[in-house]
Every structure is written in structure tokens, then in C-alpha cells.
Amino acid sequence: MTDLQIDTASLDELVARLSGTVVRPGDADYDEARALYNGMIDKRPALIVRVADVDDVVAAVNYGREQGLDIAVRGGGHHGAGLGSVDDGLLIDLAALNGVEVDAANRTAEIGGGALLGDVDAATNAHGLATPAGIISTTGAGGLMLGGGIGNLTRTAGLSIDNILGAELVLADGSVVNANENENPDLYWAIRGGGGNFGVVTKIIAKLHPIDTVVAGPMFWSLESAPELLRWYREFILNAPEELNGFFAFLSVPPAPPFPEELHLQKVAAVIWCWTGPAEGADEALAEARSQPGLLLDGVQPMPLPALQSAFDPIFPPGEQWYWRADFVEEIPDEAIEKHVEFAEKLPTWKSTMHLYPIDGAAHRAGPTDTPWGYRNANWGQVIVGVDSDPANAKALTEWTIAYHEALHPFSAGGAYVNMMMDEGQERVKASYGQNYERLARIKAQYDPGNVFHVNQNIRPAG
Ligand SMILES: Cc1cc2nc3c(=O)[nH]c(=O)nc-3n(C[C@H](O)[C@H](O)[C@H](O)COP(=O)(O)OP(=O)(O)OC[C@H]3O[C@@H](n4cnc5c(N)ncnc54)[C@H](O)[C@@H]3O)c2cc1C
Fold first, then answer.
1. What's the gap in Å between 425 CA and the centre of ligand 1?
2. What pLDDT does 22 receive?
3. Which end of the chain is more exposed for a tag (fewer CB within 10 A), N or C?
4. Which atom of ligand 1 is nearest to the CA of 80?
5. How many helices (H) and strands (E) does the chain have?
6. Which atom of ligand 1 is nearest to the CA of 202?
């Protein structure tokens, strides 16, 4: 589909109906409107509809379907593979649907489908409450929460999907429906992990927890001590109280304050901790960590949760080069640790990193078929990301990420977290949902038989 193939009369009709605006190739704001977080991905939609309300979403979905355009939906635009946009098709940009309304008495929040995590944390923290989501505040709540949602509160409060109480969606036929325990329960099951496959989610109702100030921050250890540290961590975290969250990382110390100059750019093993229990219990919970050999820096301190949730933002601004690979992991055997350290020594750029996010604790309370998240037996979501500001380094960071992933994949549980994968094909999507894929495909056939919503980690309609 090229620009010229869009029928002008029908487009005029669409524009007249919208409260929001339309951006097309050639418009002054086209490049800004189509930009994605990952600078490695360059997509050129034929039409971008910046919706202002739910009626606009309905009009855009109907228009795209009737015109036979590929439809993409954009929340925060953070997906690594650029699944929040599409070449030559229709992009529905939800950015203006970013309201977050908190019902403090009932501990719930209504989150607009285009809200960013920073919007959610700010609104909920104002009431001393929080819902579990991701670690960078510029990520879209829509994409992150519907695909799973791993972060600093996972062991305490579960995945984001474990906290979705309901949603409002625009379906492929343009109808607006609710999905919750009582209304369309099959759809409610499917959206808690099935991403944007079932419709455009205009509102998510999320459960909130009384988490306000946390005791949190990084600890860094020398890379020489990493094998011993990781052997300790793999046992420790799985036996720690659920109030303690802590993801393991290989990273380079950022070359800026507050990090001491002598550590700048040093490759280290790290754990980013987040203690959600009473502040006076933090020292005891972290005493063992502090006694691990090779500790270089202890940055753990009390802070409002949103401070932790935005601490990485300055390191990772939009528009840089990103290449992702992920796996679910049940165990971290000694041979895997050897490989980890080998690739940590070769981090290709200072922003490149590997994270092992614990997904046990409260996230293990849901069973393997309670939501589409098929790997409740996995203990970590492992992600390897090559990142740099310079496009000239794209090849080096991609090659490092792929080689690292291939070396570690044999030790993994099989599938991966759909939100931390690139566009890796149908078999990989199936593997990620495991035993839940067939049920997802049947629900997809019921709600989106024509696969109108296919610009995503796609679940093909059954039959
Ligand atoms: C810097 C960075 C940090 C990250 N940190 C974490 C983390 O801590 N934890 C974690 O779990 N993940 C994390 N991720 C991965 C993140 O979950 C995915 O990138 C996710 O897709 C982001 O959602 P988005 O709305 O920004 O993405 P987009 O690119 O806008 O969309 C991604 C997909 O979701 C669909 N989608 C988005 N919103 C809606 C909606 N309202 N209705 C229907 N479909 C929708 C889109 O159609 C698309 O298929 C991170 C990503 C980045 C780049």
C-alpha cells in the first residue's frame, strides 16, 4: 500500500469524524509522529491516527479494516521489534489516552491505553499505592501490562497481568466491550498475557498495593567475583521473603554522578534491590548480600517508588540502537554461569546489559493455565540487550546479543517473554505461550477471526 492508494474521499470522511488528528507522509510532524523508541527500527506508516477518545479508536479500526490496511497500535512505542508501528499501513497512536484515575478506597486504578508507566506511578504514588509494572518510566503501560509485566515489584505483588481486574477494548469489528471476571471472561483471560492480539485496549483496571517508599538501589560487585556471586544469588533470591525483589545484572558503571569516578565504565556484576516491607527490616533482608565478596558499591537507600522506577531513564533515552534476546529460565547451572561471565567480559558497549528478573514469589501464586503466561515454573526472565547511541555499533551489539543468547539458550526453559523478544517468528511465539497457545488461538478466532490485529507477537486465529 502506498500513499497514493489511500482513497481520498473515505479519508476525508474519517478526518471529519475524528476528534483527534491524522498525520501523513509529507506532513511536517510525520517524522516525529512515526519515531519509535528503538532507533534501529525505521517504519513509515501510510497514515497515523492520533486518537483523542474511544470513538476515535472505533473510527480508526473500522477505517483500517474496511480499507484493507495493516493496522498497528502504539502505546509507548517501546517494543524492541517495533511492533508499535507498521510500514505502509494505519498506525493508531494512543498517546493522548494517558489518563490514570485512582480509586484509593478500593485500591484500583483506571489506566488509559496510552499511559506511560511514569503516568501510572505518579498517579498511584500520590495515594501511597502502586501496581507492579516495569523499570523504566517511559515504557507504555498498554504494551507492557498486556504482555506480562515484570519489574521491581514482581516478587511482592506478581506480574502486571496478575493485577489486571478488567479492561475496555475496541474489537476488530469496531464494537466496544468490557473484559473482566463477569463480562467476556474468556477475553479477560486472553488479554492477561496475549498482548494486543484481541483488540485495542482503551482502559485497564488494575489492582493497587500499599507500596509507597521502598528501600532500593544497586549493589555492584567486581566481575572477578561474579561466578561466586551468581551461585549465591540463584539460591538466595528464591528463598528470600516476597518483600525482597532483586534482579541480577551484568552492566558497566555509568560514567556520571552519583557513581564514583574510579568505577566509571567498569564492567560489574550487580543486583538492583527493592525492599517493599517495613523500612526497618531492610538491613536484615540485605545483610547476606552485603557480606558477599567483591562488593564495590552499595547504593541502597530509602526512596519513593517512582524514584526507583525512573532511575534508569537518563541512561536509556529514546532513539538509541537496541537489540533484544530473551528466555525463561528455571535454573542457573554452573556451566551457564561460566558462559554468562564469558559474555559479560565482552559487553560490546557500556549501555549493553544482561538482566535476570526473578519471576517467582507472588508471581508463582497463579497456576500455569490461570493466565496465558505459560511459564509459572520459571524462576527468571532472562534478557540480553545490546544498546548504544551510535548506529555504527548496531552490528557489534547485535552479534554479541545473538552469540550470548545462543550460548545460554540450551540452559533455558524454552520460550521467552514476548515483550522482550524481537520479531522471531511463529514457532517462538507458540513456544512462549506453551500449553496456553491453543486456547489463545481459539479465543482469537472468536474475537478477531480475520486477524485484523496482527502487528504484534501474533496469535493466529484457530481453524
Ligand atoms: C527501555 C525499556 C525498558 C523495558 N523494561 C521492561 C520491564 O521492566 N518490564 C517488562 O515487563 N518489560 C519491559 N520492557 C519491554 C516492554 O514490556 C515492551 O517493549 C512493551 O511492548 C512496551 O509497551 P509499549 O506500549 O511501550 O509498546 P508499543 O511498541 O507501543 O507496543 C507494543 C505492542 O503492544 C501493543 N499495544 C500497546 N498498547 C496497546 C493497547 N493499549 N491495546 C492493544 N495493544 C497495545 C502494540 O500493538 C504492540 O503489538 C522494556 C522495554 C524498553 C524499551
1. 18
2. 98
3. C
4. 19
5. 14, 17
6. 41
The rounded Å distance from CA 452 to ligand 1 centre is 19
Residue 205 CA to residue 208 CA, distance in Å, equals 10
Query: What is d(CA 196, CA 180) in angstroms, rounded to the nearest whole number?
Result: 16
Q: Ligand 1, residues 58, 78, 247: which to mutate, most atoms within 8 A of Cβ?
A: 78
Residues 6+ apart with CB under 8 A from 219: 270, 271, 273, 289, 290, 295, 297, 298, 299, 300
pLDDT of residue 256: 94
- pLDDT at residue 2, rounded to an integer: 45
Cell numbers describing residue 110:
483506571
Helical ranges in 207-365 per DSSP H: 226-239, 282-290, 305-309, 334-344
CA distances, 127 to each of 43, 124, 443 (Å): 39, 6, 37
- Which position has the grid cell 517512582? 306
Give distance in angstroms: CA of 164 to centre of ligand 1: 16
Confirm if 70 and 88 have CB atoms less than 8 A apart: yes
Distance of CA 210 from the midpoint of ligand 1 (Å): 25
Q: Which long-range contacts (CB under 8 A, 24 or more apart) does 177-186 make?
A: 180/205, 186/443, 186/446
- Cα–ligand 1 centroid distance for 288 (angstroms): 35
Mean pLDDT of each 10-residue bin along the chain, 463 residues long: 68 96 98 98 98 98 97 98 97 98 98 98 98 98 98 98 98 98 98 98 98 98 98 98 98 96 98 98 98 98 98 97 98 98 98 98 97 96 98 97 98 94 92 96 98 98 95
Count the alpha carbons within 13 Å of 340 in the hemisphere toward its beta carbon: 30
Could you tell me the distance, in angstroms and rounded to a whole number, from the CA of residue 290 to the centre of ligand 1?
34
- What is the Cα–Cα distance from 341 to 197, expressed in whole angstroms? 37
Q: What pLDDT is stored for residue 1 in this prediction?
A: 44
Q: Return the ligand 1 atom nearest residue 113 CA.
A: 41
Atom nearest to 455 CA in ligand 1 = 49
Distance 161 CA to ligand 1 centre (A): 13
Label residue 206 left, alpha or beta by phi (over 0 means left) and psi (-120 to 50 means alpha).
beta
Q: Which atom of ligand 1 is nearest to the CA of 114?
A: 41
Set of cell numbers at residue 375: 511459564
Cis previous bond, 258, omega within 30 = yes
pTM for the model stands at 0.97
Q: Residue 6: its pLDDT value, please?
A: 79
Query: 327 in the Ramachandran plot: left (φ > 0), alpha (ψ -120 to 50) or beta?
Result: beta
